[in-house]
Amino acid sequence: MRRPLLGVAILVAFAVLLPVAPAASAARPVSLIEMDSAITPVTVRLLITALDRAQGENAQALIVQLNTPGGLERSMRSMVQSILGAPIPVIVYVAPTGARAASAGVFITMAAHVAAMAPATNIGAAHPVAVGGSMDKEMSKKVENDAAAFARTIAAERGRNAEWAEQAVRSSVSATEREAVKLKVVDLIAESVPDLLAKIDGRTVKTAKGPMTFATKDAPVKVIEVSFRDRFLALISDPNIAYLLMMAGMLGIFFELSNPGSILPGVIGGICLILAFFAFQSLPVNWAGLLLLLFGVVLLIVEIKVVSHGILTVGGVVAMLLGSLMLYDTPGTTGIRLSWLVIIPTVGTTAALVFFAVSMGIRALYRPSVTGPSAMVGRRGVVRTALQPEGQVLIDGELWRAVSPDAAIGAGEAVQVTAIDGLTLEVRRSAQRP
After folding, report:
1. Contacts with 164 (C-beta within 8 Å, 6 or more apart), sequence order
2. Dist CA 149 CA 373 (whole Å)
């Protein structure tokens, strides 16, 4: 009896322990980071950080879910270099539905070890554009040739359509996801991230450390959460946010100079200006536009000190509008531009604040005095000792010596001040009591 019982116990032990074995050989995870903005130095930092995190988590690949209108050429080249030299495979997935990989996004997508697109997405229009000013014909040709050569070498390195890559630069051609697969611009179409991992399972790619074969079917996906610091830097590097920070900073400094000792406006204005100048380091700022903005604010400030009958205010508003339009002298394909929904309220609010300050100053000039001898004229009081013609009156809790030039006024009657001579008031009867 003991032997059969021992055999049953061994079988039960194997049944319990066997499910643990597959877990030990489970597929390595795949890291994922979402990039849904223009390509800037902040985006470069996010990619480098994501690659380091993916390596630290022993991920077999990094998926970059991309949706971008384009961006800065220098930042794009840095990202392409990071992808080409990555020790683990980088998969660029143009998603979600309706996303695009335009301009700089074309280079980043084609540099990936695996390039995939979601349904109803597009890629293309990679013609270089001038940032911060126009280029002459010769310089434009040089930049175009350089970008076309860069696109061709990336496509050739990844075994993709080099001819189409050059046309995307020279002629700004674009392609849908189906056309891109047919033209061998990207590798496949995937409905979702799990579908993407299932389709690339078993595929071998060449990395900086040598060939690597994917084992991604049913692999766990670890989303890389962007840190608060990177989120904050990305936020202030938004062209609209940087513009608002600059305007708030200038207004804060203006109010501090107008009212020395306020402290709070100066502190807030200083912080906003520092943050704005930090953001401008990663944005293509047109200095002519920035100078126009500063000049416009100066004109509005001078309006408070100088009576120009509104000429300075109008000039300041016009200068601010022109400066706002010129601040980022980039075409829409770069994704770096100011929105009219930001420009109009900001300029309007600034002009309204200055107009309010000017109007309050004008009202103060015509307001009756509330202190000094002239402030006593017109006040009402009550006679304490009869005025025959001299006596005392009580005004606002104070006793004053007073005279009545016309007739005697008895105690308890209401009087109104008509003039003041030193510390003596001249009064007359009043129908209203104070």
Report:
1. 155, 173, 175, 183, 184, 185
2. 84
Distances (CA, A) of 152 to 112, 135, 155, 207: 14, 23, 5, 19
Q: Please count the CA atoms within 13 angstroms of the CA of 225 that sit on its side-chain side.
A: 2
Is there a catalytic annotation at residue 237? Answer: no
pLDDT tens digit string along 360-398? Answer: 766 766 666 555 667 778 888 999 988 888 999 998 888
Give the pLDDT score at 133.
46
- The answer to whether 157 and 140 are in contact (CB under 8 A) is no
pLDDT digits (tens, 9 = 90+) for 257-282: 767 777 888 899 899 989 988 888 77
Q: Which residue has the tokens 């223009």?
A: 38
> Buried b vs exposed e over 180-197: b needs ≥16 C-beta within 10 Å?
bbebebbbbbbeebeebb
The number of CA neighbours under 13 Å toward the Cβ of 175 is 19
What's the rounded Cα separation, in Å, for the pair 318 and 305? 19
How does pLDDT run across 65-77, given as a tens digit for each residue?
A: 999 998 888 889 9
Q: Cα separations (Å) of 168 from 101, 149, 159, 183, 320?
A: 12, 12, 17, 12, 37
72, 70, 32, 74: which is closest to 51 by C-alpha?
A: 32
Structural domains in the chain, CATH included, are 22-226 (3.90.226.10), 238-366 (no CATH), 373-429 (2.40.50.140)
Answer yes or no: pTM beyond 0.70: no
Q: How far apart are CA 71 and CA 105, in angstroms?
A: 8
Total number of residues shown for the chain = 434
Q: Which of 37, 75, 78, 103 is catalytic?
A: 103
Beta-sheet strand order (sheet of 122-124): 100-102, 122-124, 174-176
User: What counts of helices (H) and strands (E) characterise the chain?
Assistant: 15, 16
Rounded-to-integer distance, Cα 151 and Cα 67, Å: 19
Beta pairing, strands 390-395 & 122-124: unpaired
Instruction: Give dist(CA 67, CA 92) in Å, integer.
Output: 10
Angle between helices 104-111 and 137-158 (to 10 degrees): 20
Residue 141 annotated among the catalytic residues of the structure: no
Task: Read off φ and ψ for residue 79, nearest 5 degrees.
Answer: -70, -40
Q: Could you identify the residue written with the tokens 């319990």? A: 16
Q: Which is catalytic among the residues 141, 142, 206, 305?
A: 142
Helix axes 104-111, 162-170, angle to 10 degrees: 170
- Among candidate residues 242, 268, 245, 271, the one with its CA nearest the CA of residue 256: 268
